[in-house]
Design a protein that fits this description.
28 helices; two-stranded antiparallel sheet; mainly alpha; two-stranded antiparallel ribbon; single chain
């Protein structure tokens, strides 16, 4: 059984001091942060030491997130791009396993960035993430067999593609012995039988066997939590299809953990997510939140299948389909739902049937992982995980595995956790020795360090600036003189601060190796040479040609740490011939890659509407907002092109007089854009709202006149159409 202990703040005494041990008897603890909401009375073995003259400077770290250097984000984006390039190169070599491994590595790097402040408003992050996922999904759709290293989301995508082609006529499906022993109905129909068959053979079998093995680690305690919360125990099997039993997995919608909570929903159920930790990654906190959330959905819908559909989709979508289908059952509204949700209930039922009786479905000789066993102690300062591992008699990696919610290589400071401190899980039975060893740790040993490997062109001064340190501090930490030159490859110790996330450490498993993969060959499309003009950016050039910004980077090997320069020649590859343009500096201009809506007017008749170009706008976005084409804009404005467009520039747009409103000289026609209204709820952010409606944050801010990312509960927002 899990035991709980409290360790008061440990401040290292001077070496000449005598360490005193104090036993605090009959302490009353509230352990909500450790393992639930129960209260217990226990004798606590509390160890303390005399306060040092100089307190540990890292014990007061707070989350001043705004101070994080943008260079760190650029470095991570470039690392992800390089992994993506390796995936594309491996795809050309037809090395399927390597393709999957590299795509997953790129996505993992990007997933770690979601905890950086305001990263979801970073256009480079958004665009690169979208491009990597698009290419990965294209690859998955082309191959027949998924490598075992593929993620749960790749499997789900493959499953959704293959369901319609499943043939089970020659595959005997075992009959379950008792379908009435569960509260959630286990309906058997062709869709469920196809799903069972998918897990019994082909792509699904390898994955399901792995999930069963992992379930031994989590299911015993998950069942206990669901019983405590009064939710059907069999709902624990939902975590198999949600996350593949991986507590740290992140979806492309940035849902996290065993139960795939998005940040807003997780916050409603007490799951904190900040720079230091993410409760959604804690198996037990997330399981308790999932039990409560599922119960709430069932209370609202009155039906478990509909509640599960809401968990996957949204209650609004489910209710709309119920109204359109005039039916109140999942199977009756199924055809109205997105494909993902159509297959969600069959997935759950199949997973439950198999997990309840694996041998019946051919899953034998599963090597189940042992249930998690641990004790807990309270730590009141930011302490390096390796030091904590030494105190517990294990490695820092084992401490990390026991505490997957930790995002940094240390425990959080007391400012983040509150006076209770951080409830750290350590191996069962290690509490006594942990206390003794922890009391002997020096401030230097406790301090969370990163290792930075010096690259070409870096100096002590530039490295110190990146990490928010003074030159003297960095030199002192590494026993160097401040004026000393550091050689490429030198490994420097850097104290863990909020400006230096763990993911940039050079010993990070996702850091790319020095042997960069070759750029993928471009075998299709016509090559165009574009000379960069004053004021142009990669974004404006990509919009001009209708290509992805990340493709421009790949074609020209432009890292996220570099800027393009005036006069630079860029290679652009078009899938089909481009047509002539009025721009004398551009040899060719691409045909629009998407079918544009009908233009507002074909002539110059009527009074023109004047649009003042806003920062970040392109001809493509302006044309889309006004329901016209880039070519029509060029005709109305003396052959203007995207390269010469500047913020504040006035553009003429012609429309029938009846559509123009008096005095409206600089706003787009929003009749097609402003279709929805949304009232902000508790826990909402601009990004979570944008994600829900499939639009971007900039569009929401623009149409609502917002100048910051702050929104208040109850505020009514206009949501532009997708």
């Amino acid at each position: 059984m899990t035991q709980k202990y409290r360790f008061l703040p440990f401040l290292q005494a001077p070496r000449s001091s005598v360490v005193s041990l104090i036993l605090v008897l009959s302490a009353f603890l509230i352990i909500e942060g450790c393992s639930g909401s129960k209260k217990i009375t226990s004798t606590q073995a509390d160890t303390t030491a005399k306060s040092a003259v100089n307190a540990d400077p890292f014990s007061t770290l707070d989350d001043h997130k705004e101070s994080i250097d943008s260079a760190i984000v650029e470095e991570r984006l470039e690392a992800a791009r390089q992994e993506w390039l390796r995936a594309l190169a491996a795809e050309q070599r037809k090395d399927k396993n390597e393709v999957v491994r590299r795509f997953e590595a790129a996505i993992d790097i990007l997933n770690r960035l979601i905890y950086f402040p305001n990263v979801n408003e970073n256009k480079d992050f958004q665009e690169l993430t979208k491009s990597v996922i698009e290419d990965y999904e294209k690859f998955v759709s082309k191959i027949d067999v998924l490598p075992p290293s593929a993620s749960i989301f790749a499997l789900r995508q493959k499953f959704n593609e293959e369901m319609s082609k499943m043939d089970i006529r020659n595959l005997p499906i075992p009959k379950s012995s008792d379908l009435s022993k569960t509260q959630v109905p286990l309906t058997i129909n062709p869709e469920v039988e196809k799903t069972i068959a998918y897990f019994m053979q082909g792509n699904g079998r390898t994955f399901f066997a792995r999930w069963l093995a992992r379930s031994g680690k989590f299911f015993p305690k998950m069942k206990e939590i669901f019983r405590e919360e009064g939710a059907p125990e069999e709902l624990i099997y939902l975590s198999m299809i949600e996350s593949g039993m991986n507590p740290t997995v992140v979806s492309k919608a940035q849902a996290v953990g065993l139960w795939q909570f998005i940040q807003g929903t997780g916050a409603l159920y007490g799951l904190k997510s900040n720079w230091w930790l993410d409760n959604r990654r804690d198996p037990w906190k997330a399981t308790r939140a999932a039990a409560r959330h599922l119960k709430d959905l069932h209370r609202a819908m009155g039906d478990w299948h509909l509640a599960l559909a809401c968990y996957n989709c949204s209650m609004t979508r489910i209710k709309r389909c119920m109204a359109e289908s005039n039916d109140s059952t999942f199977w009756g509204i199924r055809d109205c739902l997105p494909k993902e949700t159509q297959n969600y209930i069959p997935l759950y039922i199949a997973a439950t049937l198999i997990a309840m009786d694996p041998a019946r479905y051919g899953f034998t000789n599963i090597q189940y992982e042992s249930p998690v066993a641990y004790d807990t102690v309270y730590v009141h300062e930011a302490v390096d995980l390796n030091a904590l591992g030494n105190a517990a008699g294990v490695s820092g990696i084992e401490i990390k595995n026991l505490n997957p919610e930790l995002l940094q290589p240390s425990t959080p400071p007391v400012e983040i956790c509150g006076p209770e401190g951080y409830c750290l899980k350590i191996p069962a039975g290690a509490v006594k020795k942990f206390g003794e060893r922890f009391a002997r740790l020096t401030p230097e040993e406790k301090r969370p360090w990163l290792i930075h490997t010096v690259e070409r062109g870096e100096s002590l001064r530039s490295i110190a600036r990146t990490y928010g340190l003074s030159l003297d501090q960095l030199a002192d930490y590494n026993n160097l003189d401040a004026s000393e030159r550091v050689k490429r490859g030198t490994r420097l110790r850097v104290p863990m601060t909020v400006m230096a996330p763990a993911t940039i450490a050079s010993n990070d498993s996702t850091t790319p190796s020095k042997d960069q993969s070759p750029l993928p060959l471009v075998s299709k499309g016509k090559k165009i040479a574009h000379r960069v003009k004053r004021g142009e950016t990669l974004n404006s050039i990509a919009a001009h040609y209708g290509v992805r910004v990340s493709d421009l980077r790949n074609w020209n090997n432009i890292s996220y740490r570099k800027k393009i320069k005036r006069g630079q020649l860029l290679a652009v590859y078009l899938d089909r011939p481009a047509k002539k343009t009025v721009d004398s500096n551009l040899a060719e201009k691409p045909v629009q890659t998407k079918t544009a809506p009908a233009p507002i007017a074909e002539t110059h008749s009527g009074t023109p509407r004047i649009h003042a170009v806003r920062p970040g706008e392109t001809l493509t976005s302006i044309a889309r907002n006004y329901g016209t084409t880039v070519d029509q804009l060029a005709e109305w404005n003396d052959g203007i092109d995207g390269a010469s467009l500047q913020a504040g520039q006035k553009l003429k747009l012609y429309a029938p007089n009846k559509t123009a409103s008096k005095g409206d000289t600089d706003a787009p026609v929003h009749s097609k854009l402003h279709k929805k209204k949304y009232r902000v709820r508790r826990g909402d952010t601009l990004y979570s709202i944008a994600e829900r409606f499939g639009v971007d944050v900039h569009s929401i801010k623009s149409v609502n006149g917002l100048h910051s990312n702050s929104i208040q509960k109850g505020k009514s927002l206009v949501i532009p159409a997708e």
